[in-house]
Known about the structure:
This protein has helices at about 5-35, 65-75, 85-95, 110-120, 145-150, 170-180, 240-260, 275-285, 330-340, 410-420; strands at about 45, 55-60, 105, 120-125, 130-135, 135-140, 160, 165, 185-195, 195-205, 205-210, 210-215, 230-235, 265-270, 295-300, 305-310, 320-325, 345-350, 355-365, 370-380, 395. It is built from 10 helices and 21 strands. β17 (about 320-325), α9 and β18 (about 345-350) form a beta-alpha-beta unit. By secondary structure, it is α+β, with helices and mostly antiparallel strands. The protein has a 6-stranded mixed sheet with strand order 12-13-14-17-18-21, with helices on both faces. Strands 3, 15, 16, 19 and 20 form a 5-stranded antiparallel sheet that branches. The protein folds into 2 domains: about 120-205, PDZ domain (Pdz3 Domain); about 210-420, 2-enoyl-CoA Hydratase, Chain A, domain 1 (Alpha-Beta Complex).
Amino acid sequence: MTRPKITNILLILSAIIFLFGSGYKLGEYQTAKGKIERPSYSILNSTPGATKNEKNLKNIDFTLFWDTWNQLEEKYVDRKKLDPQKMFYGAIKGMVASIEDPYTFFLTPEENKQSKDDLGGRFEGIGAQLGLTSGRITIVAPLKNSPAELAGVKTGDFINKVNGESTKGWVLPQAVSKIRGEKGTKVKLTLERSGNELEVEIVRDTIKVDSVEVKLDEKNKNCGTICGTVAYLKLNQFGENTVDEWEAKVAEIKAAWDKKEIKGMVLDLRDNPGGYLESSVYLAGEFLPKGTLVVRQESKVFGDKDYNVARTGSLMDIPLVILVNKGSASAAEILSGALRDHKRAKLIGEKTFGKGSVQEALDLREGAGIHVTVAKWVLPSGEWINSKGIEPEIKIEMKIPDGNTLTREMDTQLDRAIEEVTK
Length: 423
């Protein structure tokens, strides 16, 4: 065999070996690149203490989840936004949101703390209670003397944007976390009111909310001396401190009633977004006889339960009128509805918000939490007011000029309440 032929054969063999080796290495690289080291998962649906045979085993293939995660990590243009912890929480939020119940939601540790601060009555932010109306973030009520109220924010305003970011599809904790912030910082809200958009810039501050406010209204300007003196009690929320604050204020009213210094009482539940169901039952006991049904909770999971008055109240015979509006929700509707159904009080104002479900707030590991709708509640009459609200016996729409906040002089609803309670 001639030397050129041998050289050609060696060159061909070398090329074949090179191509084979390169292909092998390329395939090895691509395999390694596409391989994601993740554990395999099995989802076990079981109750604590169940035996192995009692467990309902469902194998869930998480490949798609990890494939998606991997594609984000490899391809997303802005790597600074790839926060694994945030992505993890986002995945859980999406799972819970798939239920399509706006009142069932997952809370990150920070959001869970904020939620507890709300009911504890102290936080930093703009001072406004938020709700959902047809899936839109809504101002349920700006708190008294809060930055939100001073900036002109009103009950019923839709929040379309926060700092230029659309709120479409947001859940309540997401809106709260975006709007809240340290004292002295600013947040810009794009509000929608009566079909028109307006922007407000609000400086955040420390918000301290008293659950209960009380005063003795000496005389109503519209009815002269015949109104006499009326006790006015404003209930802002049903929070952690509500019962203790209520007891202290009711003692003042009880003393004035016993001395015949007052002719009746106005309980103001306007813009009260609710809170703890148990607090509403306790407060109803101030006016209703022991054993009276306040609310019935219906649940396929926990069974039905009646909440009845379990004490003897101090104000069983005082004339009573309750003020409500579209910001009166949840526990505020339970209290006002029960007193209306038992003909213990007359409701004056506007139709209430209409929230007839019960949520259980659960703490999860690492400080996270979840609010889960566990039941619905119905009034003593059997009425379920969810999405309907409660219509007051005496309807008075509050008309406040744009750019103004409610003052005593503008409060025609309170005027009418005082007139009614002193008849």
